[in-house]
Amino acid sequence: MINRKIVAEDFKKAEKEQQKIKQLKITDKLEENYRKTYSLTSLSDQAGTKSYYSAFKNLSNLNPENYSITNATFLVENAFFNEDKNFANTYLDPDILYIL
């Protein structure tokens, strides 16, 4: 009877280990697919891509539940212009800036 208990426990341990290994494989596959989809490695050495990487990083940090479309649009447009624009000068009324 004790042997059956030990064998049953060993089977449970082995099954848990197999589940962990299976989950790790699934996670690795998902990460690999993500990298294939979202990596910009083929253009990373070209001039101007630094701005797009910066914009992507900033967009990724926005709260998806509550963000400003104006700010998101500015990040993308500013990447196009190689980050030479200023948000306040681009979108805000100069009279409002004076008050702030």
Helix content: over 70%
Mean pLDDT: 80
Work out the helix count: 5
The secondary structure category is mainly alpha
Order of helices and strands: HHHHH
| Main sheet summary | none
Shape verdict: elongated
Number of strands: 0
Unreliable stretches covering 5 or more consecutive residues: 96-100
User: What proportion of the residues form beta strands (DSSP E)?
Assistant: under 5%
Distance between the termini: 80 Å
> What value does the Rg take, in angstroms?
25 Å
Into how many domains do the coordinates divide?
A: 2
Outline the structure in words.
With 100 residues, the chain is mainly alpha-helical. The protein has two domains: 1-39; 43-100. Helices cover 72% and strands 0% of the residues. It contains five helices and no strands. α2 runs antiparallel to α3 (69-80). The longest helix is centred in the N-terminal third of the chain and has 37 residues, at 2-38. The chain is elongated and about 80 Å long. Mean pLDDT is 80; it is low at 96-100.
Present the secondary structure layout:
Blueprint: H1 2-38, H2 49-60, H3 69-80, H4 87-91, H5 94-99
Helix pairs in contact: 2-3
Question: What are the defining features of this structure?
Answer:
100 residues; mainly alpha; 2 domains; disordered C terminus
A few lines on this structure:
The chain has 100 residues and is an all-alpha fold.
